[in-house]
Amino acid sequence: MSPALSTQKxxxxxxxxxxxxxxxxxAxxxxAxxxxxxxxxxRRMAAVCLAAxxxxxxxxxxxxxxxxxxxxxxxxxxxxxxxxxxxxxxxDTQEPQPSSAAESVPRLExxxxxxxxxxxxxxxxxxxxLAVTPGRSSKTFGGVTRIELLxxxxxxxxxxxxxxxxxxxxKGAPPxxxxxxxxxxxxxxxxxxxxxxxxxxxxxxNEYAQQVRSLLATGYAVAASDYIGLATxxxxxxxxxxxxxxxxxxxxxxxxxxxxxLSTTWFAIGHSEGGQAALFAxxxxxxxxxxxxxxxxxxxxxxxxxxxxxxxxxxxxPADVVYGLYLLVGLSTVDPSITVEQFSGPAAAPHLDLxxxxxxxxxxxxxxxxxxxxxxxxxxxxxxxxxxxxxxAVGNPDQEPTVGPLLLVQGEDDQDIPAGITELLSExxxxxxxxxxxxxxxxxxxxxxxGPATCETLDWLAxxxxxxxxxxxxxxxxxx
Length: 480
Hints:
The protein is α/β, with parallel strands linked by helices. It contains 13 helices and 13 strands. The relative contact order is 0.15.
């Protein structure tokens, strides 16, 4: 991989997360308006940035931006179709339904922005169910049964942790053997507890709710992990691949404990950071030999992380530094000597509580839009080399083979994770002996590929043991 392509990929990844933050209903209206103006201005730079990135690694930030119809603004903050906080979650429910979890499992309770976690954990067994909410009917997902659950997973070093997530089960009688499970991985939402998808009606973004609805309609139960450190104790291990993969794999046996109507067959699907998580989950699946991971779909997955932080700083666009700060938060869970406080400059210090404790993506962007990027980080060349090496070591998904059939989905016009980067990922995995299918969609971008790719994704899953979709018609991605 050329240095230019590697840096382009990682830099544009952080730009993607900036763009998709348009959905965050945790942001104030003024913040949404400011972020909209910032993204609109940056869209005018699109063609220039793409060309520059190909020639000058990381010289520009983002070439793919959303149009004005895809932005959050103050009028949309009251739109009930938008992502909403846990305090509004009751709007998503109809009459409560009894949970099918064993009566001995405690009820999952909230404690502020996070879930209440037993201390110490009563068990260290990965995948063990710890607590559940009562089952209820979800309007957002067409009346299927929804619960939130707490389960045991572990970090890269084997330390057991509690992780939260969501389980959605189709209506009606299950097929023989039970509902097949999709462990579904979300893209970046933030690193604070308030950013956990399980605390929202639509799993944080409307395009994600659209994809999950298609899975439910086809006959899959969907288990969606929040990942380690979102709405549970400790920092979110952002882009730490083993942690992400463990969380995605371990929610499957926990979901089966919560609902006995689920199959032993499961699939992994994720987008962006969730695509990275799905790739790592193929290896974590070995933790549960009684379950069968049939196939995996990674949509525009994160990879080539070694140049990410340096590219963010070199890019010079202030709001993108939020992702650099997130990367430091994630690395702190692997190496305690790397902390966001240690490597932050004077421009970042006043906003670190927002970054790590109280805000999500859109909350943070306006805080940095007028800052000098050079004042946000304080990282020596020696430390940058160490940080970059660790990012690659813990985050790149192609250092060893993934397990089982793999479909890589990519938009040809994705300027956040360019098609060439995913093609290189595919080549690397093929060289490692992985059964890879790469599907590139012309004229589609990082998020806009989700809707049009749904039917082919469902067909591919059916070829690997999933239910056959009925009359699936590709639809544009719901970017509202």
